[in-house]
Amino acid sequence: MSTSQSNPAPGGLRSAVKRKTTADKKAQSTNAMPLSTRSAGAGGSSSTMMKLFTDEAQGLRVDPLVVLFLAVGFIFSVIILHVFAKITGKFTSS
Amino acid sequence: MGGFRLLDLVQFFLPVLPEIESPVEKIAFDEKVVYTVGGAFIFLLGQLPLYGLVSNAQFAIVDPLYNIRSIFAMEKGTLLELGLLPVITAAFIWQVAAGLRLINANLGLRYDRELFQTGQKLTAFALAVVYAAGLIYSGYYDNVIRGYDPLKDSTPIGSYVLLFTQIVSWSWLVTLMVEIFDKGYSFGSGVLSFLTLQVATNTVADLIGIEVFKVFNSNKSESYGALMNLVRNFSLFSPKKNAATIWHAFTRIQLPNLNQFYISLLTIGGVILLQNYRIEIPIRSTKVRGMSNVFPIRLLYTGGLPVLFAFTVLANVQVFGYFSTVVLSKLGAPQLLVSLLGKFELNPTSNNLNLKTGILFYLSNSTSLLQTLLSPIKTVVYAFSIVVLSVWFANKWSYISGSSPKDIAKQFKDQGISISGKRDISIAKELARVIPVASVSGAFLLAGLAVAGELLGGLGKGVATVVGVSSAFGVLEEFMLEYQQSGGSQFTSALSGLQ
After folding, report:
1. This prediction's pTM
2. Among the four A2, A41, B197, B423, which has the fewest Cβ within 10 Å?
3. What is the pLDDT of residues B247-265, one digit of tens each?
4. Domain range for residue B260?
5. CA-based nearest distance B494→chain A, Å
6. What is the ipTM of this complex?
7. DSSP string over B232-295
8. Which chain B positions have a beta carbon within 8 Å of A54's beta carbon?
């Protein structure tokens, strides 16, 4: 490194200045880029709350009630399977 | 821009992933309560046993993950087998990656934010598939599948598919319910609400659960609740037997014991105590003369999240480590390599798979106080890794979550607030002197509390309590804020009108 210290900047002084301004610009833009969705001003995880889904993305739109009913429906189908298993188990074992 | 972005991969999945509609208008307070209670109730229904297993399968399952269950609401042998582990892991992966700028996403742009969010959901879905497939592949269910004898029968593909479908679909539905909570249909965040709920219900059930189970490998049956069992077996006339009963109440490992309960109780007290510490920064209005107030900065600035993060990392190490040992030994890797990674040994009284040696052993918690004292190196390594992970995360999180000193300074400026005796420009600097210190020392104390519970043999209960109680505070705070802003609940005012 000691040899390169005395050398002039590669490409001359002009390009050194140019590179410095681009580096500055880059630093500025990275500073401006928000690090989380909340600091971008759009909700999301705060310091104590972990939130995942706060924007409305494109996709298969569903109503929240539909999901809740689906969940209940799924639970009931598993319960029905259990009940059937109990009934058939009674008949086969006896 | 050019170049390849991870986010662009998500784009292909956009049309097929379900997306909950955001509320059209602000959800009323009462409606939020209904959504919260309803969602919570449906979440708890997930403790239904899986179809296709023998009855009381939770005692017969050979369980390598027993020490992380209570932290992530993973219920053995039920639909909630994976609990919240996929969602929490996905959230931490994406949000920490964005905060450290490991992924190329400009969250200031709406489209990038949407992709980012869908990426989290996709990861949660994919992780559920991976965990479920790994569990089934590792033969986790083999000795509890109904009508299947591992020694005689061929691979029960049908049962495997059935189990896989149940676990994965419930995990996906839980992810979507988290989304309902997050999107403003309810208070606070979905993940933390569900965790709190699970911890609260389990703590009560652990103490006074009245269900009676036949104990595995023994001819006795015991109550689920630790105190219940103690009371049931207590007899006034034989003090000698009572001593044994009390000893048993503190040390039983198949069902919850009193030791875990007392650790939880002390932890609750500790978290409440820590929650109260705060620094109050005097603020004044820049617009109205003479208006002054205080802005509190809590010691637990990042809440329970650092502890949750540390245990998420370790839990994933444990889970994937376990899968790797299974895969390696099934592929016929040399025994030395497998035991270098981690050697599991079955504990016949509890059917838990305990780690004996290997890298994973040093990153696992103690099963009892005795083990803590007998293997000091492991104790130190474990405690150290938890504390370091928590502190690192707390420091980062105080900058990358939307509550960094810079963000708060911006909020102050928007609301016309300034710190008394300071100029506008130096607000961020002043806050930066307090916030990281508060969050780091808060995380350190909280992690210490969690680790202390683990070293005493809490088997994850203490950690779950730390996370649960601190999340409960967050949710409660949001609830009260909402309550005051909406001018109280219409339901309660209707009720009070009746009197």
Report:
1. 0.89
2. A2
3. 888 888 778 888 888 999 9
4. 254-486
5. 26
6. 0.86
7. HH--TT-HHHHHHHHHHHHH-SSS--HHHHHHHHHHHHHHHHHHH-EEEEEEEESSSTT-EEEE
8. 117, 182-184
